[in-house]
Amino acid sequence: MCVHGNYIKDLQVIGRPLASTLLVDNSPHAYAYNIDNGVPIESWFDDDTDTELLKLIGFLRQMTPATQDVRPVIRDHFKTHKLIDRALLGGGCPIKSPPF
Asked: 3-state secondary structure string, the chain?
């Protein structure tokens, strides 16, 4: 859905448990409604030598069948919530105009 000019993917609509769902996206706005499910990557547009998904192999290997909830693992690894907190406090952030 488009919110304030940013496309946001609300993971609730897919009807799967958020504890076992992650979203890999190059735009932090895409997972703004589910910050702790978002896995950030660099943009790959027009780059035939892109290896962004390969860079995630080590991280994704942490997600074993025994992982009860992926969100704390994602939160601890990427710390996106800290960028948002900093932006909300006026400290600046690479995320422009957060919709929350």
From this structure: CEECCEECCCHHHHCCCHHHCCEEECCHHHHHHHHHHEEECCCCCCCCCCCHHHHCHHHHCCCCCCCCCHHHHHHHHHCHHHHHHHHHCCCCCCCCCCCC
